[in-house]
Amino acid sequence: MKKKMLLALVILVVLAGFTVFLLDMFEVYTFDQVKAGGIDLLSNLPVVGGYLTAEEEIERLEEELAVANSQLAEVEEQNQRLYFELEGTEEKVVQLNEIIDDLEEELERMGVEREDYETKLNRLAEIYSQMNSQRAADLLPDLEVRLATDILSQMDEEIVAEILEFMPNEEAAEFSTLLSQ
Question: Which of the listed residues 110, 144, 159 is the one where a domain comes to its end?
Fold first, then answer.
């Protein structure tokens, strides 16, 4: 009896498969339509329905995972690019800090030199102020124009006027112009 039932079941399955094949071949029902109908029918069964729903959920989650992995790859690529930019920027910052340090040292050195120059300039202005105006008028044009102008600018205006009176007109005019600037 069991053998007969098993044989009948096998024949039934073969006939069902052959029927589905013929329906698909003659395009009465396509295999996809039969599959979808079977899934709809099976999803109404309690145990099988939960399994089919879980498979659909897994497929959806796998699609979301693929999208998330794609986005992660883009973010990692952008992160790598930004990291290299940051390294380049850090190198530039180090270089600029070195330049700033050099400039600060140079400014400090120039400040000391400027103080020395002004100290010496004040001393020279005092010496030329105490000198005979005629003698100062003879010596100042022999100095560098900038130095002579700086010395005159540190002196009292009355003494400068006396010195300029003893200079030739061209030199007196040149120093007057430079002192007015």
Answer: 110
Verify that 103 and 135 share a domain, yes or no: no
Nearest-5° angle of CA 30, CA 32, CA 36? 120
What is the per-residue pLDDT across 70-125, written as a single tens digit (0 to 9) for each? 998 998 999 899 888 888 888 888 887 888 888 778 877 777 777 888 888 888 88
Q: Is residue 18 part of a domain?
A: no
With a pLDDT cut of 70, the percent of the chain lying above it is 82
Examine the domain organization and report whether 35 and 80 are in the same domain.
yes
Q: Residue 148 belongs to what domain range?
A: 131-181
Any domain includes 5:
no
| pTM for this entry | 0.45
